[in-house]
Amino acid sequence: MTLIILDSSVVVKWIISENEKYLEQADKLLEKVKSGSFKCYAPELLKYEIGNVMISKQCTTSYINLAFKTIYSLPISFITCDLRLAYHTANISKESGITFYDALFIALAKKLKATLITDNIKHQGRYKGKEVKIISLKDYR
After folding, report:
1. Which residues are CB-neighbours of 116 under 8 A, at least 6 positions away?
2. Neighbours of 81 (CB within 10 A)
3. How far apart are CA 26 and CA 33, in angstroms?
4. Residues near 33 by Cβ (< 8 Å), separated by ≥ 6?
5. pLDDT digit string (tens) for 48-69?
6. Over the stretch 24-53, which tens digit does the pLDDT of each residue have?
7. CATH of domain 2-139
């Protein structure tokens, strides 16, 4: 079974499609996740980032509640950032010149030997480690 890490930039497309690119790829990915074709993981941080996006886009409280109900119903295993993962994340962040937030998704992919799928390739693509496969959403087929 294929293990994937989902970046917030992908999941947000499942709940807010207005002005978003690569919706067709995101929808294909969602179907794979729902069908169980992929074993899907994300750091707990994903929930907070999605919440921030919905607040910044001034979504109604009822819409936010429905969006979170949807996210929590999906077969995504949310992983807490423990001390060891925090150390690895900090190293990746410093070495790659990216935020701790972006580096956390990479560190989790490295830890689980999973593929990271992101629409944030501008930042996460700066990671040069060969042990993590990072796929841009626009290239997802």
Report:
1. 4, 5, 7, 105, 106, 109, 124, 132, 133, 134, 135
2. 16
3. 10
4. 4, 6, 40, 74, 75, 76
5. 999 999 999 999 999 999 999 9
6. 999 999 999 999 999 999 999 999 999 999
7. 3.40.50.1010
